Amino acid sequence: MKTTKHSFGYWQWRVIICSMISYAMFYFVRKNFSFAMPLLKEEYGITNASFGIILSVAGIIYGVSKFLNGIISDRTNPRWHLVIGLAVCVVANFAFGFSDKLSTMLTGQTEGPDFIGGMVLIMGILYIINQIFQGAGFGPCNHLMVNWVPPKELATKMSIWNLSHSIGAFVVSVLCGYLTDWKLCFWVPATIATVGILFTIITLRDTPKSVGLPELPDTKTELDDKEDDPKAFREFIIRRVFKSRIVWTLAITDLFVYVVRFAILDWGPTLMKDMGLSQSMSGWTVAIFEVAGCLGMLAAGVISDKLFKSGAQKVCAIEMGLVAVCLVALHFIQDMGHPILFLIVLATAGFLVYGPQAMLGVVASNQVTKKAASSAVGLIGLMSYVSTLITGYPLGRFADKFGWHPIFLLMAGFAIVGFVIVATLWNLKGDGYIHDEEA
Hints:
The chain has helices at residues 2-28, 32-44, 48-73, 78-96, 99-107, 113-134, 138-148, 151-161, 163-177, 182-203, 230-242, 245-274, 279-307, 312-333, 339-368, 373-385, 388-391, 393-402, 407-423. The chain is an all-alpha fold. The longest helix has 30 residues, at 245-274.
Protein backbone atom coordinates (compact mmCIF):
# COMPACT_ATOMS: atom_id res chain seq x y z
CA MET A 1 0.00 0.00 0.00
CA LYS A 2 2.84 2.39 0.93
CA THR A 3 4.64 1.58 -2.32
CA THR A 4 1.47 2.18 -4.34
CA LYS A 5 0.91 5.54 -2.62
CA HIS A 6 4.50 6.60 -3.30
CA SER A 7 4.26 5.49 -6.92
CA PHE A 8 0.98 7.31 -7.41
CA GLY A 9 2.45 10.49 -5.94
CA TYR A 10 5.41 10.28 -8.31
CA TRP A 11 3.23 9.74 -11.38
CA GLN A 12 0.70 12.38 -10.37
CA TRP A 13 3.33 15.09 -10.08
CA ARG A 14 5.12 13.86 -13.18
CA VAL A 15 1.89 14.20 -15.19
CA ILE A 16 1.13 17.63 -13.69
CA ILE A 17 4.60 19.08 -14.35
CA CYS A 18 5.16 17.49 -17.75
CA SER A 19 1.72 18.45 -19.05
CA MET A 20 2.40 22.02 -17.84
CA ILE A 21 5.54 22.12 -19.96
CA SER A 22 3.72 20.59 -22.92
CA TYR A 23 0.92 23.15 -22.75
CA ALA A 24 3.36 26.04 -22.29
CA MET A 25 4.81 25.05 -25.67
CA PHE A 26 1.42 25.79 -27.26
CA TYR A 27 1.72 29.37 -25.98
CA PHE A 28 5.16 29.67 -27.55
CA VAL A 29 3.58 29.23 -30.98
CA ARG A 30 0.47 31.25 -30.25
CA LYS A 31 1.14 34.41 -28.23
CA ASN A 32 4.23 35.24 -30.30
CA PHE A 33 1.89 36.68 -32.94
CA SER A 34 1.07 39.62 -30.63
CA PHE A 35 4.75 40.62 -30.62
CA ALA A 36 5.14 40.27 -34.36
CA MET A 37 2.15 42.60 -34.87
CA PRO A 38 3.82 45.95 -33.94
CA LEU A 39 6.93 45.00 -35.95
CA LEU A 40 4.79 44.17 -39.00
CA LYS A 41 2.83 47.39 -38.50
CA GLU A 42 6.07 49.37 -38.38
CA GLU A 43 7.60 47.71 -41.45
CA TYR A 44 4.54 47.36 -43.69
CA GLY A 45 1.94 49.77 -42.25
CA ILE A 46 -0.62 47.03 -41.54
CA THR A 47 -3.47 48.58 -39.52
CA ASN A 48 -4.77 47.60 -36.09
CA ALA A 49 -8.14 46.91 -37.73
CA SER A 50 -6.55 44.37 -40.11
CA PHE A 51 -4.88 42.58 -37.23
CA GLY A 52 -8.13 42.81 -35.30
CA ILE A 53 -10.02 40.96 -38.03
CA ILE A 54 -7.45 38.16 -37.92
CA LEU A 55 -7.65 37.96 -34.12
CA SER A 56 -11.46 37.92 -34.08
CA VAL A 57 -11.95 35.29 -36.78
CA ALA A 58 -9.14 33.07 -35.53
CA GLY A 59 -10.30 33.46 -31.93
CA ILE A 60 -13.78 32.19 -32.72
CA ILE A 61 -12.30 29.28 -34.67
CA TYR A 62 -10.05 28.49 -31.70
CA GLY A 63 -13.08 28.51 -29.41
CA VAL A 64 -14.94 26.08 -31.67
CA SER A 65 -11.81 23.91 -31.91
CA LYS A 66 -11.38 23.95 -28.13
CA PHE A 67 -15.01 22.88 -27.77
CA LEU A 68 -14.75 20.01 -30.27
CA ASN A 69 -11.38 18.88 -28.94
CA GLY A 70 -12.83 18.91 -25.43
CA ILE A 71 -15.48 16.39 -26.44
CA ILE A 72 -12.90 14.30 -28.31
CA SER A 73 -10.51 14.45 -25.33
CA ASP A 74 -12.94 12.59 -23.07
CA ARG A 75 -12.49 9.55 -25.35
CA THR A 76 -8.88 9.73 -26.63
CA ASN A 77 -5.29 9.28 -25.44
CA PRO A 78 -4.24 12.78 -24.30
CA ARG A 79 -0.52 12.32 -25.02
CA TRP A 80 -0.94 11.75 -28.76
CA HIS A 81 -3.73 14.31 -28.93
CA LEU A 82 -1.28 16.92 -27.62
CA VAL A 83 1.52 15.82 -29.95
CA ILE A 84 -0.56 16.10 -33.13
CA GLY A 85 -1.90 19.53 -32.19
CA LEU A 86 1.47 21.00 -31.26
CA ALA A 87 3.20 19.57 -34.35
CA VAL A 88 0.80 21.34 -36.75
CA CYS A 89 1.16 24.61 -34.81
CA VAL A 90 4.95 24.40 -35.15
CA VAL A 91 4.71 23.91 -38.92
CA ALA A 92 2.29 26.87 -39.22
CA ASN A 93 4.69 29.12 -37.29
CA PHE A 94 7.63 28.28 -39.50
CA ALA A 95 5.40 29.12 -42.48
CA PHE A 96 4.50 32.50 -40.88
CA GLY A 97 8.09 33.64 -41.34
CA PHE A 98 7.74 33.20 -45.09
CA SER A 99 4.55 35.30 -45.37
CA ASP A 100 6.33 38.00 -47.39
CA LYS A 101 7.73 35.46 -49.86
CA LEU A 102 4.34 33.75 -50.14
CA SER A 103 2.66 37.11 -50.77
CA THR A 104 5.11 37.85 -53.58
CA MET A 105 4.33 34.47 -55.13
CA LEU A 106 0.59 35.18 -54.81
CA THR A 107 0.54 38.80 -56.02
CA GLY A 108 3.71 39.17 -58.08
CA GLN A 109 4.55 42.26 -56.00
CA THR A 110 7.25 43.01 -53.43
CA GLU A 111 5.57 46.11 -52.00
CA GLY A 112 2.41 48.19 -52.25
CA PRO A 113 -1.25 47.59 -51.28
CA ASP A 114 -1.63 44.30 -53.17
CA PHE A 115 1.51 42.89 -51.56
CA ILE A 116 0.40 43.97 -48.07
CA GLY A 117 -3.11 42.64 -48.68
CA GLY A 118 -1.61 39.33 -49.73
CA MET A 119 0.46 39.19 -46.55
CA VAL A 120 -2.59 39.88 -44.40
CA LEU A 121 -4.53 37.14 -46.21
CA ILE A 122 -1.72 34.59 -45.88
CA MET A 123 -1.12 35.39 -42.21
CA GLY A 124 -4.85 35.18 -41.58
CA ILE A 125 -5.06 31.71 -43.16
CA LEU A 126 -1.98 30.47 -41.28
CA TYR A 127 -3.23 31.91 -38.00
CA ILE A 128 -6.59 30.19 -38.48
CA ILE A 129 -4.84 26.85 -39.12
CA ASN A 130 -2.72 27.50 -36.04
CA GLN A 131 -5.78 28.21 -33.91
CA ILE A 132 -7.60 25.09 -35.11
CA PHE A 133 -4.80 22.91 -33.76
CA GLN A 134 -4.21 25.12 -30.69
CA GLY A 135 -7.60 23.76 -29.63
CA ALA A 136 -5.95 20.37 -29.12
CA GLY A 137 -4.00 21.72 -26.13
CA PHE A 138 -6.22 22.32 -23.11
CA GLY A 139 -8.75 19.47 -23.46
CA PRO A 140 -6.21 16.62 -23.26
CA CYS A 141 -4.46 18.32 -20.33
CA ASN A 142 -7.71 18.75 -18.44
CA HIS A 143 -8.45 15.06 -19.13
CA LEU A 144 -5.11 14.19 -17.53
CA MET A 145 -5.75 16.35 -14.46
CA VAL A 146 -9.21 15.00 -13.58
CA ASN A 147 -7.92 11.43 -13.94
CA TRP A 148 -4.88 12.01 -11.72
CA VAL A 149 -6.16 14.53 -9.11
CA PRO A 150 -9.04 13.96 -6.60
CA PRO A 151 -11.89 16.53 -6.58
CA LYS A 152 -10.94 17.93 -3.15
CA GLU A 153 -7.43 18.73 -4.41
CA LEU A 154 -8.35 19.82 -7.93
CA ALA A 155 -8.57 23.57 -7.30
CA THR A 156 -5.14 23.71 -5.68
CA LYS A 157 -3.36 21.44 -8.17
CA MET A 158 -5.21 22.85 -11.17
CA SER A 159 -4.09 26.32 -10.08
CA ILE A 160 -0.53 25.00 -10.13
CA TRP A 161 -1.10 23.43 -13.55
CA ASN A 162 -2.58 26.66 -14.86
CA LEU A 163 0.78 28.30 -14.33
CA SER A 164 1.56 26.74 -17.70
CA HIS A 165 -0.51 29.50 -19.36
CA SER A 166 1.48 32.23 -17.68
CA ILE A 167 4.86 30.50 -17.88
CA GLY A 168 4.45 30.07 -21.62
CA ALA A 169 3.17 33.61 -22.14
CA PHE A 170 5.85 35.07 -19.82
CA VAL A 171 8.79 33.36 -21.50
CA VAL A 172 7.59 34.07 -25.03
CA SER A 173 6.83 37.70 -24.07
CA VAL A 174 10.36 38.29 -22.79
CA LEU A 175 11.90 36.31 -25.66
CA CYS A 176 9.98 38.12 -28.39
CA GLY A 177 10.48 41.44 -26.63
CA TYR A 178 14.17 41.18 -27.56
CA LEU A 179 13.57 40.03 -31.12
CA THR A 180 13.57 42.96 -33.53
CA ASP A 181 12.79 40.90 -36.65
CA TRP A 182 9.16 39.78 -37.01
CA LYS A 183 10.26 36.56 -38.71
CA LEU A 184 12.30 35.54 -35.68
CA CYS A 185 9.20 36.08 -33.51
CA PHE A 186 7.80 33.01 -35.30
CA TRP A 187 10.89 30.92 -36.01
CA VAL A 188 12.59 31.01 -32.60
CA PRO A 189 9.52 29.93 -30.55
CA ALA A 190 8.68 27.26 -33.17
CA THR A 191 12.15 25.77 -32.81
CA ILE A 192 11.75 25.55 -29.03
CA ALA A 193 8.27 24.01 -29.40
CA THR A 194 9.72 21.32 -31.65
CA VAL A 195 11.73 20.07 -28.66
CA GLY A 196 8.48 20.21 -26.67
CA ILE A 197 6.89 17.68 -29.03
CA LEU A 198 9.60 15.10 -28.26
CA PHE A 199 9.33 15.88 -24.54
CA THR A 200 5.58 15.21 -24.58
CA ILE A 201 5.98 11.85 -26.31
CA ILE A 202 8.59 10.67 -23.81
CA THR A 203 7.11 11.86 -20.50
CA LEU A 204 3.29 11.72 -20.47
CA ARG A 205 0.90 8.84 -19.67
CA ASP A 206 -2.89 9.12 -19.75
CA THR A 207 -4.41 7.45 -16.63
CA PRO A 208 -3.25 5.70 -13.45
CA LYS A 209 -4.47 2.42 -14.97
CA SER A 210 -2.06 2.87 -17.91
CA VAL A 211 0.93 2.56 -15.52
CA GLY A 212 -0.56 -0.22 -13.38
CA LEU A 213 -2.03 1.95 -10.61
CA PRO A 214 -5.62 2.00 -9.25
CA GLU A 215 -8.02 4.71 -10.39
CA LEU A 216 -8.91 7.63 -8.09
CA PRO A 217 -11.16 6.69 -5.14
CA ASP A 218 -14.51 8.40 -4.48
CA THR A 219 -15.05 9.34 -8.13
CA LYS A 220 -17.93 7.05 -8.99
CA THR A 221 -20.38 8.06 -11.72
CA GLU A 222 -23.44 6.44 -13.26
CA LEU A 223 -21.39 5.97 -16.43
CA ASP A 224 -18.85 3.63 -14.80
CA ASP A 225 -20.73 0.45 -15.71
CA LYS A 226 -21.41 1.63 -19.27
CA GLU A 227 -17.87 2.65 -20.25
CA ASP A 228 -18.05 1.17 -23.74
CA ASP A 229 -21.61 2.25 -24.56
CA PRO A 230 -21.47 5.23 -26.96
CA LYS A 231 -25.18 5.97 -26.50
CA ALA A 232 -24.86 6.10 -22.71
CA PHE A 233 -21.81 8.37 -23.00
CA ARG A 234 -23.65 10.68 -25.42
CA GLU A 235 -26.67 10.93 -23.12
CA PHE A 236 -24.38 11.58 -20.15
CA ILE A 237 -22.63 14.43 -21.98
CA ILE A 238 -25.90 16.01 -23.10
CA ARG A 239 -27.42 15.92 -19.62
CA ARG A 240 -24.34 16.85 -17.58
CA VAL A 241 -22.92 19.46 -19.97
CA PHE A 242 -25.23 20.85 -22.63
CA LYS A 243 -28.38 20.96 -20.49
CA SER A 244 -26.61 22.12 -17.33
CA ARG A 245 -27.49 25.59 -16.03
CA ILE A 246 -24.30 25.48 -13.97
CA VAL A 247 -22.02 24.85 -16.96
CA TRP A 248 -23.69 27.57 -19.03
CA THR A 249 -23.42 30.07 -16.16
CA LEU A 250 -19.71 29.30 -15.85
CA ALA A 251 -19.26 29.55 -19.62
CA ILE A 252 -20.90 32.97 -19.87
CA THR A 253 -18.85 34.21 -16.91
CA ASP A 254 -15.66 33.04 -18.63
CA LEU A 255 -16.56 35.11 -21.69
CA PHE A 256 -16.34 38.27 -19.58
CA VAL A 257 -13.15 37.10 -17.86
CA TYR A 258 -11.50 36.59 -21.25
CA VAL A 259 -12.60 39.98 -22.57
CA VAL A 260 -10.46 41.57 -19.86
CA ARG A 261 -7.61 39.08 -20.24
CA PHE A 262 -7.36 39.24 -24.02
CA ALA A 263 -7.72 43.00 -24.17
CA ILE A 264 -4.43 43.16 -22.27
CA LEU A 265 -2.62 40.13 -23.74
CA ASP A 266 -3.50 40.61 -27.42
CA TRP A 267 -3.31 44.40 -27.54
CA GLY A 268 -0.94 45.01 -24.63
CA PRO A 269 2.30 45.21 -26.66
CA THR A 270 0.71 47.57 -29.21
CA LEU A 271 -1.01 49.65 -26.50
CA MET A 272 2.21 50.00 -24.50
CA LYS A 273 4.21 50.96 -27.59
CA ASP A 274 1.64 53.62 -28.51
CA MET A 275 2.01 54.92 -24.92
CA GLY A 276 5.74 55.43 -25.63
CA LEU A 277 7.29 52.25 -24.22
CA SER A 278 10.00 50.41 -26.14
CA GLN A 279 9.42 46.95 -27.66
CA SER A 280 11.43 45.28 -24.88
CA MET A 281 9.70 47.30 -22.11
CA SER A 282 6.31 46.43 -23.58
CA GLY A 283 7.31 42.78 -23.44
CA TRP A 284 8.37 43.05 -19.80
CA THR A 285 5.14 44.86 -18.86
CA VAL A 286 2.94 42.11 -20.30
CA ALA A 287 5.28 39.50 -18.81
CA ILE A 288 4.88 41.02 -15.33
CA PHE A 289 1.11 40.90 -15.81
CA GLU A 290 1.56 37.16 -16.41
CA VAL A 291 3.80 36.68 -13.37
CA ALA A 292 1.18 38.35 -11.18
CA GLY A 293 -1.37 36.06 -12.79
CA CYS A 294 0.71 33.03 -11.75
CA LEU A 295 0.62 34.12 -8.13
CA GLY A 296 -3.08 34.92 -8.41
CA MET A 297 -3.92 31.44 -9.72
CA LEU A 298 -1.98 29.76 -6.92
CA ALA A 299 -3.68 31.92 -4.31
CA ALA A 300 -7.13 31.31 -5.82
CA GLY A 301 -6.62 27.53 -5.81
CA VAL A 302 -5.43 27.34 -2.21
CA ILE A 303 -8.14 29.71 -0.97
CA SER A 304 -10.81 27.75 -2.86
CA ASP A 305 -9.83 24.39 -1.32
CA LYS A 306 -8.76 25.51 2.17
CA LEU A 307 -10.88 28.54 3.02
CA PHE A 308 -14.02 27.91 0.95
CA LYS A 309 -13.92 24.05 1.05
CA SER A 310 -13.61 23.67 -2.74
CA GLY A 311 -16.03 26.55 -3.32
CA ALA A 312 -14.02 28.02 -6.19
CA GLN A 313 -17.04 29.90 -7.57
CA LYS A 314 -16.97 32.14 -4.47
CA VAL A 315 -13.36 33.11 -5.14
CA CYS A 316 -14.27 33.84 -8.78
CA ALA A 317 -17.04 36.24 -7.76
CA ILE A 318 -14.89 38.13 -5.24
CA GLU A 319 -11.98 38.50 -7.64
CA MET A 320 -14.08 39.70 -10.59
CA GLY A 321 -15.44 42.50 -8.41
CA LEU A 322 -11.91 43.53 -7.43
CA VAL A 323 -10.73 43.37 -11.06
CA ALA A 324 -13.34 46.00 -11.93
CA VAL A 325 -11.92 48.29 -9.22
CA CYS A 326 -8.38 47.90 -10.62
CA LEU A 327 -9.51 48.70 -14.18
CA VAL A 328 -11.28 51.87 -13.09
CA ALA A 329 -8.07 52.88 -11.28
CA LEU A 330 -5.99 52.23 -14.42
CA HIS A 331 -8.22 54.60 -16.39
CA PHE A 332 -7.20 57.48 -14.14
CA ILE A 333 -3.59 56.44 -13.52
CA GLN A 334 -2.70 56.44 -17.23
CA ASP A 335 -2.98 60.26 -17.23
CA MET A 336 -0.83 60.76 -14.14
CA GLY A 337 2.55 60.05 -15.74
CA HIS A 338 3.50 57.41 -13.15
CA PRO A 339 4.46 54.26 -15.14
CA ILE A 340 5.51 52.35 -11.99
CA LEU A 341 2.12 52.93 -10.34
CA PHE A 342 0.41 51.94 -13.60
CA LEU A 343 2.46 48.73 -13.71
CA ILE A 344 1.65 47.89 -10.06
CA VAL A 345 -2.10 48.26 -10.56
CA LEU A 346 -1.93 46.37 -13.87
CA ALA A 347 -0.09 43.53 -12.09
CA THR A 348 -2.77 43.53 -9.37
CA ALA A 349 -5.44 43.20 -12.06
CA GLY A 350 -3.49 40.25 -13.49
CA PHE A 351 -3.28 38.66 -10.04
CA LEU A 352 -7.06 38.88 -9.70
CA VAL A 353 -8.28 38.03 -13.22
CA TYR A 354 -6.26 34.82 -13.52
CA GLY A 355 -8.00 33.33 -10.50
CA PRO A 356 -11.41 33.09 -12.24
CA GLN A 357 -9.71 32.14 -15.51
CA ALA A 358 -8.32 29.03 -13.80
CA MET A 359 -11.07 28.23 -11.29
CA LEU A 360 -14.17 28.33 -13.52
CA GLY A 361 -12.98 25.17 -15.28
CA VAL A 362 -12.31 23.52 -11.92
CA VAL A 363 -15.89 24.17 -10.80
CA ALA A 364 -17.19 22.71 -14.07
CA SER A 365 -14.89 19.66 -13.95
CA ASN A 366 -15.99 18.76 -10.43
CA GLN A 367 -19.66 19.21 -11.27
CA VAL A 368 -19.73 17.10 -14.46
CA THR A 369 -17.16 14.52 -13.13
CA LYS A 370 -14.04 13.19 -14.84
CA LYS A 371 -16.17 11.43 -17.47
CA ALA A 372 -17.30 14.73 -19.02
CA ALA A 373 -14.81 17.27 -17.66
CA SER A 374 -13.06 17.98 -20.97
CA SER A 375 -16.40 18.38 -22.75
CA ALA A 376 -17.49 20.93 -20.14
CA VAL A 377 -14.28 22.94 -20.30
CA GLY A 378 -14.52 22.71 -24.09
CA LEU A 379 -17.92 24.39 -24.01
CA ILE A 380 -16.60 26.98 -21.58
CA GLY A 381 -13.62 27.50 -23.87
CA LEU A 382 -15.92 28.08 -26.82
CA MET A 383 -17.84 30.77 -24.95
CA SER A 384 -14.67 32.38 -23.63
CA TYR A 385 -13.30 32.78 -27.14
CA VAL A 386 -16.50 34.42 -28.29
CA SER A 387 -14.82 37.29 -26.41
CA THR A 388 -12.58 37.82 -29.44
CA LEU A 389 -15.62 39.22 -31.26
CA ILE A 390 -15.16 42.10 -28.80
CA THR A 391 -11.40 42.16 -28.24
CA GLY A 392 -10.41 41.64 -31.88
CA TYR A 393 -11.75 43.87 -34.64
CA PRO A 394 -14.01 46.11 -32.44
CA LEU A 395 -11.17 47.07 -30.09
CA GLY A 396 -8.70 47.46 -32.96
CA ARG A 397 -11.15 49.67 -34.84
CA PHE A 398 -11.94 51.63 -31.67
CA ALA A 399 -8.21 52.22 -31.05
CA ASP A 400 -7.64 53.38 -34.65
CA LYS A 401 -10.43 55.95 -34.25
CA PHE A 402 -10.38 57.04 -30.59
CA GLY A 403 -7.11 55.80 -29.12
CA TRP A 404 -6.66 53.54 -26.11
CA HIS A 405 -7.69 55.96 -23.37
CA PRO A 406 -11.29 54.84 -22.57
CA ILE A 407 -10.57 51.10 -22.88
CA PHE A 408 -10.09 50.47 -19.15
CA LEU A 409 -13.52 51.79 -18.17
CA LEU A 410 -15.10 49.59 -20.83
CA MET A 411 -13.23 46.57 -19.49
CA ALA A 412 -14.36 47.42 -15.94
CA GLY A 413 -17.96 47.21 -17.13
CA PHE A 414 -17.36 43.70 -18.49
CA ALA A 415 -15.74 42.64 -15.20
CA ILE A 416 -18.79 43.82 -13.24
CA VAL A 417 -21.13 41.79 -15.45
CA GLY A 418 -18.94 38.70 -14.90
CA PHE A 419 -19.09 39.26 -11.14
CA VAL A 420 -22.89 39.41 -11.13
CA ILE A 421 -23.28 36.22 -13.21
CA VAL A 422 -20.90 33.97 -11.28
CA ALA A 423 -22.24 35.22 -7.94
CA THR A 424 -25.49 33.37 -8.72
CA LEU A 425 -23.58 30.09 -8.07
CA TRP A 426 -22.38 31.14 -4.62
CA ASN A 427 -24.08 28.22 -2.76
CA LEU A 428 -23.21 25.48 -5.29
CA LYS A 429 -22.34 22.03 -3.82
CA GLY A 430 -18.80 20.65 -4.08
CA ASP A 431 -18.98 18.07 -6.89
CA GLY A 432 -21.27 15.83 -8.96
CA TYR A 433 -19.88 12.41 -8.04
CA ILE A 434 -21.92 9.60 -6.44
CA HIS A 435 -20.46 9.25 -2.95
CA ASP A 436 -20.74 6.14 -0.81
CA GLU A 437 -22.60 7.94 1.95
CA GLU A 438 -25.22 9.03 -0.60
CA ALA A 439 -25.69 5.57 -2.12
